[in-house]
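Exercise: predict the structure of this protein bound to tryptophan.
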Amino acid sequence: MTREKPKNLWLSRWGFILAATGSAVGLGNIWKFPYITGEYGGGAFVLMYLACILAIGIPVMMTEIALGRRGRGSPIDAIARVVRENNSNPLWKSVGLMAMLAGFMILCFYVVVAGWAFAYTWKMASGALAAPSVDALAKVFETHNASPWQLGGWSVLVALLTLWIVGKGVQAGVEKAFRWMMPGLALMLIVLVGYAWTSGSFSQGFAFLFTFDASKITGEALLAALGHAFFTLSLASGAILTYGSYIPDGQSIARTTFIVAIADTCVALLAGLAIFPVIFANGMDPSAGPGLIFMSLPLAFQQMPFGTVFGVLFFAMVSVAALTSAISMIEALVAYLNEKHGISRVKAAAGSGALLLVISLLAMLSFNLGAEWKLFGFTLFDGLDYLTSRWMMPLGGICMVILAGYCLRSEIMRDELGLAPAGYALWLFMVRYVSPVLILMVFLHALGWLGFDPIAQWYWIAGAIGALALLGELLAPRVRHELALR
Ligand code: TRP
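Solution:
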């Protein structure tokens, strides 16, 4: 069977790396990583998060990229082609459908959060954040959310910007935009860390992030770290798979994945280094929760020299990072409509954009007029978040590693990944045994069905991985076989 010819390729070797990094680096790194690190007490959480990136994030990301490049298309088409090549059940393509849906659903609430970042850039510049205390800033945040016109206006702006860039297409829009967005983002972060260096509390912030306190390792924190590793690398939502389908043959998937994962992790750590010293210098509580950035940082910015400039830069940076992530969430759907149904990218972006506008405006109303509109106890905003992160992403991730680890003929992935035998055997061991068990754990914990503490009773997990490896190698001795190839 001849392989699908690629239709769109990245302009350069850096195309995928820039775009995938743009997808991975977002509100997850700059807003969520610092606030959950604060909540779970610092260094121990950081260490667990790093371990999860290594044990799950990297193997799953390699799998997604390989599936995308092998199938050359949107998640549905790429997976359909790969399973056809393998004569497997065509129903596997529903994994692609679910991933695409998850990406779109995440976007519907992500534009609202991104809207906060855009609005705060403006508020910072216009002086609207010159409130005297954290309480006063909390009030600004509440007032902003209480107004459907304000909140909705900013959400619509984010949605339209996203659609405009996506509509222009991979080469013309996405890649060129990333070319200046990513270096700009890196530069702004370094400037902010530079300020934090002079803030007087840099060592305190540094110690908070990197001092390891074993008593803070709890099962709860591990699971939060695991879930965040998934979210921050944009896995199982179509984004990485679709971008992967534009990678030229011959480019190393493993190398590329490591670069993206390291860049994503560095941005999260830099964001932590920029934020925590400022928080400690101003005597704020690092575990203040999701409002950490929006309610407290403007106060800190007021106190620094050129604070308005730094504040505007900071929120502009968050906005840019959110935008590059948002673009990746809808790219899969646009690629699907374009390739499968021959709809032009502009029309596909406009059509899916109309739906996006309707749903995201309804989600935005969860903060004001629609606060009481609930289904199964969830507002639309919370429900979209819950459905995607608790159900669709873990399920999609586990399906992909099972497909790649158990169902595909070994030469397909080996050919696509192009690794040396030992590297391939390691990847295979991770996707067959380690990643599925760990993802299942997140999944069951989210449902409240885990029934044990995964840290104190870690031997259950080690046992599950061991038993699965033993069983797997007895029934289908692929890892041993791959090692023997050396
Ligand atoms: N990874 C991005 C962040 O850290 C968010 C993101 C982009 C995402 N695409 C995604 C999350 C797909 C889940 C699924 O903010």
